[in-house]
Amino acid sequence: MSTTRPGAASQVMHDAPRLPSRKLAVWLFLGSEIVFFSALIFAYIVLRITSPDWPTHPEIAEVLNIGLTAINTFILIVSSVSVVLALEAITRGNQRGLRLWLGVTFVLGVIFLSIQAYEYVHLIADGLTITKSPIPDTDTMFATTFFTMTGFHGMHVLGGVLTLAIVLVKAMRGLYTREHHEGVELFGLYWHFVDVVWIILFTIAYLI
Amino acid sequence: MNLPTGETETQPPKHAGASIRTYLAIGVVLAVFTAIEVQMPTWLAADRPLLVVSLLVLAFVKAAFVVLYYMHLKFDSRVYSGIVVLALVLISFFLWLVSYGQFPSP
């Protein structure tokens, strides 16, 4: 006669649905990223409120290319849509759709980074740097915080694009299937998060 | 259903999420909101407090759409939502701590 029998507590634990560990890890990572970017944005807001030499919004609008950045925002939004379509495609076993939409996302990500690099080059050429400001009677606090926030975001986009290159290569090799495509989903989570951060940054740094 | 390449599209396994039509509709909404946001500094130039509030509301609505639908938070385990909430609570508490008493009341 067996003398071992799981207790009620261990039975509950055994029967409880387990979360995919990689997905949980990605969400925990994104949680840390929420803390990171929130701190950056809060620092920007505090410095803006307390700095007596912060440029006014019309002065900022003259320096920053808001129209071009709006296009860049649109590009990132469309890339989020394409990532969603890529995931939907592989859940239906549509390999061609997966590769197509991941490819579209990759191209859009590269375009975003290119436009941001173009913007940076022109801002620096116009005199907006961390050591000087082209706006009369203002200090460099705006430039410093602007480049810090958007620079960190840009680095995250670059990391996303590099990761996407790996995901795309695996997709081209047919390594994702209808049943096994966790890598696509996890990449999508990261990419959408990068989009969310940009939505907030664009509003706070460019429009307000 | 047969695809042009000869592959056969199978029915997706049952998984939580919205339809493709919903995802596309949300994409359109995000794009439209972005276009509105870009024009708002011109429309509300004379009322800066309203401009700031409107832009922030629009931004957070857009962010919510992406988080809830594109990131599947609306359909996924509550543990993931809990992680997001915990992160926001932690950073809010920390920022309150460092800024406590720094800003005099009006």
How is this structure best described in words?
The complex is a heterodimer of chains A (208) and B (106). In chain A, helix 4 runs antiparallel to helix 7. The longest helix of chain A has 32 residues, at 141-172. The mean pLDDT of chain A is 91. Chain A has seven helices and no strands. Chain A is mainly alpha-helical and 208 residues long. With 106 residues, chain B is an all-alpha fold. Helix content of chain B is 65%, strand content 0%. In chain B, helix 1 (20-43) packs antiparallel against helix 2 (48-70). The longest helix of chain B is centred in the N-terminal third of the chain and has 24 residues, at 20-43. Chain B is flat and about 50 Å long. Chain B starts with 19 loop residues before the first helix and ends in a 7-residue tail after the last helix. Chains A and B meet through helix 2, helix 4 and helix 7 of A and helix 1, helix 2 and helix 3 of B.
